[in-house]
Amino acid sequence: MSESFPRLHARTRRFTLGVPRGFTISPDGARVLFLRTQSGTDPVTCLWELDTATHVERLLVDPRALDAEEEDLPPEERARRERTREQAGGVVAYATDSAVTTAAFALSGGLYVTDVATGATRRLETPGAVIDPRVSPDGRHVAYVTGGGLHVHDLATGEDRALAVPEADTVTYGLAEFIAAEEMDRFRGYWWSPGGDALLVERADEAPVQTWYIADPANPDRPAVPQRYPSAGTANASTELYVIGLDGSRIAVPFEDEYLTTATWDAHALSIVTMSRDQKSLRLFAVDPATGASTLLREDTDEAWVDVVTGVPGHLDDGSLVWVAADEGGRRLFVGDRAVTPPTLQVRDVLDVDRDTVLFRASGDPTEIQLWTWDGHSLMPVSTASGVYSGRLSGGVGVLTEQSLENEGVSTTVVLPSGMTIPIPSLAERPGLDLRVHLGRAGARELSTAVVFPSWHEPGSRKLPVLLDPYGGPHAQRVLAAQSMYLTSQWFAEQGFAVVVVDGRGTPGRGPAFERAVLNDLATPVLDDQIDALQGVAQQYPDDLDLSKVAIRGWSFGGYLSALAVLRRPDVFHAAVAGAPVTDWRLYDTCYTERYLGDPAAQPEVYDQSSLFADAAKLDRPLLLIHGLADDNVVAAHTLRLSSALLSAGRPHTVLPLSGVTHMTPQEVVAENLLLLQVDFLKKSLGTA
Question: Is the pTM value of this prediction over 0.90?
Answer without folding.
Answer: yes
